[in-house]
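Escalated from tier 1: flavin mononucleotide holo job.
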Amino acid sequence: MAVFFFAAILIALAITITALTGTPEQIADSVEPAAPNKDVLIVYAVGVPYRTISELSAADVDKVSGATPASYNTRAISSELASKLRARGFSVTLKTVEDVRSHREIFEYRVLVAATPVRFWNMSWMMKKFFDEIFARIYVAEKACFRDWPVAGIVMAEISDSAEAALGTIRSVLQDCGTDLSLSSYFLTNYSSVEREDEMDKLAEGIAKLVRDRLIID
Ligand SMILES: Cc1cc2nc3c(=O)[nH]c(=O)nc-3n(C[C@H](O)[C@H](O)[C@H](O)COP(=O)(O)O)c2cc1C
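Tier 2 regenerated the structure:
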């Protein structure tokens, strides 16, 4: 009898403590992330580079999940951006969306860059999965920490209107999570090398400014 009584008291105590302080998961989430100590995290989604959509025939379509020449796709844009930023002295990590395991990685960097191909006027499903899974934790538990976090969005497309629309879909995720797109950029498959180079320089300079502004605030 005394054992049951003692056990009941212990259970009631445990329930009270959990109610007051949160589950272990909630406690971990509520720990304020340390100030970021690295500069830029570039997260990109890829298809399998092949060729442009306008060059595809109906018979080709099921062979591809991405449609751009290898030197001109989202992966190439992202790694070129990483090189430009490193050349300016910034610490940069380049990762595919699949390689980001936790929302906490994002908090280690002063600026997040998200790069995706455009699929049907939207971000690609891999980028959407990244936002759905990784940003869910920010949306639910870390919105306050993420408020006004600097994020740049890059899309690779054939048509500028759909590039703008896809950037809009990224923007709405960020706005739901307490921030916004600080900077956006698109690369079109028909850009000349000069247009591509100009956009890349503008983008690298914009991201460099986001990092510097963040350093001043921190
Ligand atoms: C299924 C599919 C849908 C696409 N939808 C669009 C679109 O809505 N607008 C656009 O401009 N390009 C669209 N494209 C073209 C790609 O966005 C473009 O080729 C892009 O450069 C692909 O980048 P990636 O090689 O990194 O995947 C689409 C391509 C595929 C395969």
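The CA atoms of residues 82 and 92 lie 6 Å apart.
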